[in-house]
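Minimal example, chain plus magnesium ion.
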Amino acid sequence: MSSGSAVVAATDLTRVYHTRGGDVAGVHGATFRIMAGQVVLLKGASGSGKSTLLSLLAGLDTPTGGELIVAGCDLRRASQADLTHFRRRTVGMVFQSFNLMPTMTVLENVCLPALLAGDALPVVRPRAMAHLDWLGLSHRAAHLPEELSGGEMQRTAIARALINDPPVILADEPTGNLDSVSGQAVADYLAELGRHFGRTVLIATHGALADHLADRTLCIKDGQMSEGACDLS
Ligand SMILES: Nc1ncnc2c1ncn2[C@@H]1O[C@H](COP(=O)(O)OP(=O)(O)O)[C@@H](O)[C@H]1O
Ligand SMILES: [Mg+2]
């Protein structure tokens, strides 16, 4: 594979937290590349650095060392304006706890990031409905999150992550709050985004639901990355 198609290029990537108890390395000297369209699992025990890494890739947190280029954006050197654009247009995030707005309907939740990015509702609405349809949620569009099952909430969050058409999808323990049947459906949809829609998908998990769906597995342990399966025992 040529380096030209690397969507993520991390070199010696480091994020040290300065705490009262001393410095804690969330991510420590990680070097890896992820190619366009790959579905990659990020495995690691609790506290190994998965969420820290995803926050860095999403432009929500800044590295304290090393280099990080995501979809052509140099995240250590980007201006605030570039970062805002990056967070809105380049990455879509899915979280373990769904993070839906409780007072907004499913459709409103899905439309929100596009409206915040400046798109007009008449343009956004059909896009949102198309994503909900793909995710089997058309009949839930007018419902509030509290009226949904966990699996439906997470599929709503996937639709929301897609609304600005980002090339990169980052999912942080997306099946962690779901039973195995709905968790499997969520893992299947995320993998489809890579396999059939050419998006680059990184799924952080310590579960096994997505194991058979991934092109590749990265293992993180004490903030250090390696290629291949992880011993999580
Ligand atoms: N905001 C923070 N301040 C200090 N330490 C943190 C912070 N966030 C994470 N850490 C530490 O960084 C390490 C990695 O955490 P995290 O990325 O949340 O791991 P995971 O998502 O794999 O459970 C842990 O030792 C954790 O305690
Ligand atoms: Mg985490």
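The chain has a mean pLDDT of 95. The chain is about 30% helix and 30% strand.
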